[in-house]
Input
Amino acid sequence: MATVSTGAYAVEADGIMLGSGVTVLPGVELSISDNNNIYLEDSNTNSSTITRVRPNVGLNADLGAAVVNAFYQFESATYSADSDDNYLDHLLTLGADYEATSRVSVAGAFKFNKGHDDRGTGSLQTETTNERDPSEYSELTLGASATYGADSAFANVTGYVERYGKEYDNNEDITDTLNYDKTTVGAELALKVSPDTKVLFDISNAEISYDDSAASAKEGSLVKFLVGASWNMTGKTTGEFKIGTAKRSFDESTFDDNSSFSWEGNVSWSPKSYSTVTLMTSQSSNESTGIGTYVDNSYTMVNWDHEFSTMWAMNVMASLNGDDYVDGDRKDTTKAFTIAGIYSPMKMLDVKAGLDIAKRDSDAAGADYSKRVISVGATLAF
Output
């Protein structure tokens, strides 16, 4: 819950070493894509060429018992069809891990995301070719965790807490009722049953509150209890899978409480050192963006990374996403497929070309769509 990524590069960045265990990792990504359905419309679709630039910088400080990470990125996008769709997003993350003793460790995390909903998505699912601007929002996440135990111990216990808040900055007539806060408290018990396998027990409770009184009927809690296992078989497969139940309760009697089967898992298999297949799957309860009380989501993704040589690689991904808008009389199923080729003339540079295809089937009128995106880009990391 309280880990922070310092940025993911396919390239091998050396970084700039400042001494005393501190390394700075600057980078930049540039991409140009052709999207034939930018507003996710069922008919009379709109296309555009989109140019994106993502400068970023990461920092890693290994201070012995403590490790500190930071990452900042801004993303600028320009649309050829309509400049009203242009945006500038910001992302800042901070994280720290501290090993107090051989059995006690603590971690903390901070994340600030200045993002947006494109027209046709999120709060603007029904807003496409009109005069409304993309919905801009701010997300703030604070997390902390503490673990008692050791790698060699039979039992490890981790307690965690996370505070998440989302607030929209414009389009108040449709976004005022979407601002909310979620506070999650939980604990996980891990029992070692073999050198490579652990049995996991995870329980959590999330309290959800909305800023606007018009959305107070959606306030309540989400309680989850999951049981599963994690494993790490060197040279073969690693992963974690948990199943259990989730119950969404509401403070007011306007809506009925709901219980559902829940799961989360990820498995990575490397039959060869140069080829890796990853499976991710989950069931979660997400806050809605104007339809229903909440969204019962299921997601499954299979990803294959294969290196043909030190200079050529390929990535293939397929996913299936299901959204059930509870009390909203709508169900969506979205299938997506991606294939990309990567050329690395040097370890600090990747050149990439890809094709993305997505198709949504919905029982809501006009909510179906098909989309095709062709893109080329480059990633440079120092």
